Amino acid sequence: MIDTAQIIDSGTNILFVTFDSLRHDVAHAAAENGLTPRLAGLLPGGQWERRQTPGTFTLPAHMAFFSGFLPKLPQPKQPSRLWECRPPTFKEVPPETFVFDAPNLLDGLAIHGYRTVCVGGVTYFSQETPLGSVLPAMFHEAHWHPEFCSPEPDSTRYQADQALELADRYDGRQPMFLFVNVSATHVPHGHYLDSSIDSAASQAAALAYADAHMGRLLDRLSGYGQWLVIMCADHGDAYGDNGYHGRGIAHPVVFNVPFAAWVHACRYSG
Q: What is the DSSP letter of 180?
């Protein structure tokens, strides 16, 4: 059980990573087959939890996440939520859940002294259009460049470099909520298999590519102190499953997403 309320009260940094469009079955098989050794060495038990997303494409999923609704376990009994908007008086919230008295998590963290920063990936974070500005506007600052987006084969390297630059900028100044939307697992990703066709196999190859940069990011961040780390997908993607293609549809491969949360230890003490 993670005591998010205590973690935030203590000013611990938070890293929240969403692997855009990553299916649970793809992530699970990649870990099982040794394609993601860095992530497997970080995830609790070396494997992803299977959870179900509250949204079937990027915008509603992230709006739900930032409103307090992370993916849930596919079972009746649920663990305590990591964070939740202040509920009506008749509802009790477990003491370990961080309750924010604000319209969204980012504003709630700001009240607690956090600097909220976004490293965007897919175009819902690009700020190029009115709709692509909705999510970035929730943060104190949001960063996006074309090379952060999925058509760029080395997108995760650029995103990790940006995240580390931000961590260095705010280290010691104030606690940080660092959000990264990894775009490599979003279509198009066939190029990771030298193909023009996107598939579960090419998504696995995209995740294998991103693995090293996620490991590098966590290695470096541990030098800035202790972090609460949450990693998940916002939704999955269909590649011809039962004849379905894409996202925004009610299909199990879209609903079932990987999830993990843990406290990442500081590399030094004192």
A: E
What does the alpha-carbon distance between residue 126 and residue 217 come to, in Å, rounded to a whole number? 22
Asked if residue 269 belongs to a domain, the reply is: no
Question: Measured in whole angstroms, how far is the alpha carbon of residue 6 from the centre of its chain?
Answer: 21
Domain hosting residue 154, numbered range: 4-264
Task: Report yes or no on 270 lying in a domain.
Answer: no
Would you say how long the chain is, in residues? 270
Helix (H, G, I), strand (E, B) or coil at 124: helix
> Does residue 164 form part of some domain?
yes
Q: What is the mean pLDDT of residues 36-62?
A: 97
Tens of pLDDT, residues 192-207? 999 999 999 999 999 9
For residues 173 and 144, give the distance between their C-alpha atoms in angstroms, rounded to a whole number. 23
Share of the chain above pLDDT 90, in %: 93
Q: How far apart are CA 148 and CA 152, in angstroms?
A: 7
Which amino acid, residue 203?
A: Q
Separation between Cα atoms, residue 207 and residue 245, nearest integer Å: 20
Q: How far apart are CA 16 and CA 254, in angstroms?
A: 20
Q: How many domains does the chain have?
A: 1
- CATH number at 166 reads 3.40.720.10
Residue with tokens 């199990």: 252
pTM score of the predicted model: 0.97
